[in-house]
């Protein structure tokens, strides 16, 4: 046996020696791995092949055009490079330094039948015989394709991949997809519960939306893990997901949340101030989930929005348990369910209702409504019922009802009904189908429609019958529209109309269009297709028949015949003395004819005396002559202060107009005219345009321009040199004068997405003055700019701008702006950061008088040094602004405001702090506050404090105040609260002599008043304190006034007051001076014009005292004469008026006595007389006089017929009786008679304006 062991040992040693020799041979051979692969190729269970395998066994390797195939997948790689460290195998590690794969394609064929489900369990632990270290993996253009689907390709890179036992880690991962960029890192354990942790960052470009960037954090294991995700602004949301037992009884929870999502970043038609916040929560299993959402929107112009939803979804159905929307546009409620039971047996049920629904910017208001749908896709019922209010309902309420039955292909309306819609009625029927092609057949009938419900200028009553039918398929559109009749009255004019239109594909026929309104009529017929034959005629003897308030007359005749691409066209139109709102045209004539592409072309237009608002043009003319391939055009505009003349020559060739501007002249109101120095080539088409060498010159001034545009982009150059501003004051108004010169150079280029270019401009010696209304006074200089320079540049590397100048005589202006992130994409400007600084110093403040005409001679020194940095929409400001040594006069109030100082500086966030002070009349006033922007809306809080500040200094009023007031402003309104003390005032109003107060029943007729513009809602809570030096002198009253009032006012309420004012002085009445013994004006939470009165004024005569007491409300005071000791009323009145008893009065004193008696006594007598008349059944009973109490009479009156009124009067102090009659002949003519001491008859004509 020993020999056998020796033979076996020799063979084993030989084999080991041979293997070592083979490895040594392969190790050094440059194609060793290639030979080994070729040897293994026929023995491998997976087929593979390659074109080239380079490199020794120790590496590096290079494999070209590798293909690997199996039954269900195949792999191909254009090139693979590998570098490794074989010596690491001795340490039990496979160490790959670099693995690079280029143009890899992996295609997988899905199984013909799905694999039966298997019970999911934790994977078996991963136990590799060697540790694997991969320093760098590079994948260029790697694609995966499932079956025949489009392949998805990525570029990828992995850095430092480690597999040690069951532990794994990746230091860096990066994947680049055409729509997604992904990077991250992670680590974990491939054993036990398979724990893992990863951090990822992703970016993707969404068409027409901002760049999306998000971060993900994944932590957990295959039993339970969580995902936390946050998206960067402007998306600004967070997502948290928790998953339990993903390999078994799956359970999960998710919550999406945002606090400041701004929809304006995604849709520019949404206001910038709108901010969205809320949460969406969901939880469930692999079979079902519950969903709950709550969203809130702030900052919308109409107010906040709230939306909530709760529901459920499972494998067989989806259900919305509750849907609510509470918004300024109304309240919406809904619920529904969809059961997935099969393609044709699914069941749908949904209900949607609303209350107080309105759509901003329209006259559509629906107090309530409901939409219901139920059934199956093959047959469902739909109904809608709604009430409308507002203008569409004619000021009342209207109803709309729709009902019908539908399926997957069509819907048939069994009911189309509207009641009181525009005060009318609408009924209809029909059906609409969308499969196999779109078809429709609808008929509508309306009666009693009043367009005046929407616009009061168009009152009327209209009825119509209309129908339409048609279809759209592969052959195109075929349709008929028939309006059998429109008839009724509109703005008092008879209206009639008919329309018949039908066609298919490119052939359409207008069989009839005939519309009449009053005497105006329009008729048209014709055919549109490869051959055209169209005619139209309009006759308007009076434009008032077509438009409210218009006047004038107009006519139009038009005709087109021939091939569609080369028709013959004729047009004649005219108008005379046209007036339409702010438009006035004295004469308009238009004529034109075109006989075809190669026939003569002629057009003439003339307008004389055109007025648009305050702008007047004397004439406009246009003249076109020639043929399409060669024609001449001239155009002129003349007005008193400006004239324009333009001429061109050219023609159409291959859908392009090629020609030149042969003349261009612009005549300003003064100075040399601007003339085109040479013809400028011009080309125009739907695809591109070009203008070259356009130069206008006027003496040393010039304006030159070049430009090109095409679908690929545009470019433009503009050069303005030495423009004299003086002749162009017409642009700002004749009351202004301008002086100075400006120049500019612009070179810009861009396209629909990009903009780049440079700008430089200058202004020298600019002076702006306003002429004085008094011709002898010099003009007021408002602005002086000796020098101003502007520059800017926009490139792919950023945007910069600079401004420098000298405002005023000793001013300084320096400003810079930069957007280093600008890459030429102008649509991204609002999302880019900006930085800049502005320094301004000036002592020229005269322009402040433009803010108010009451300011005069403003002076001071203004300086500002502001810097900003941050997002374009919300940069952070630093620095400040200051006004020092300021003064201004307010002549209308007689004020001289001096020592004005104001400082403002931005603080952290979006706040601006400001403080200021001034003196007036020896008193000091200070101001402090802050202004901040929240969600793009300003909010102001300010405090005014002062002592003895003069606020009025005129002959009628001298007033000093000491305020301690807080003022707040927000978009919702203005609030004023605090205390206003008036320590000293002297009020001496002008006497209002000869005025007559209208009676309470007087009615003023005429045009309706303009509606008052909406004012800002405000809240007032102010305490007014009158000091001991407040005096009033006027209307016979000389008194000191003291006291306090609390003033309050809220939105939609009148101001009310509480408190009391005390009078202490004298009152002159009936020619006598009375001493005010007791004077109180009382407010008990009543409007300012309705105080209570408690006044007592008297006069002493030796041992006799007489006077007047006034009590009650200001509108209805109770006035009494008193005396002490007690006297008869006649004697007391004589003492009060004459200063002596009645028995000492003379005949000359009767007038004064009569006026006093009438004022004090007859008001009560009239009230008594009215009560007696009510008992006797007489309509009118009154005591009347003509200003003299001696003529007072008791009058009884009654209407005998609606037009005949008769009255009888009996003298109170004499035996005179008077009979009067009044008979209304018409609305304007009235006949009056009177018989008494004198008799008369009058015919009266009334003209109301």
Which spans have pLDDT < 50 for at least 5 consecutive residues? Answer: 1-22, 992-1012, 1161-1176
Q: In angstroms, what separates the terminal alpha carbons?
A: 146 Å
- What is the CA-atom radius of gyration, in angstroms? 47 Å
Molecular shape: extended
Instruction: Give the helix tally.
Output: 4
Question: Mean pLDDT score, rounded?
Answer: 84
What percent strand?
A: over 45%
Strand tally, please? 73
Sheet with the most strands?
A: 67 strands, mixed
Oligomerization category of the chains in this entry: single chain
- Label the structural class: mainly beta
Helix content: under 10%
Membrane topology: Single-pass membrane protein
Keywords: Membrane, Transmembrane, Transmembrane helix
Pfam families: TamB
Organism: Candidatus Macondimonas diazotrophica
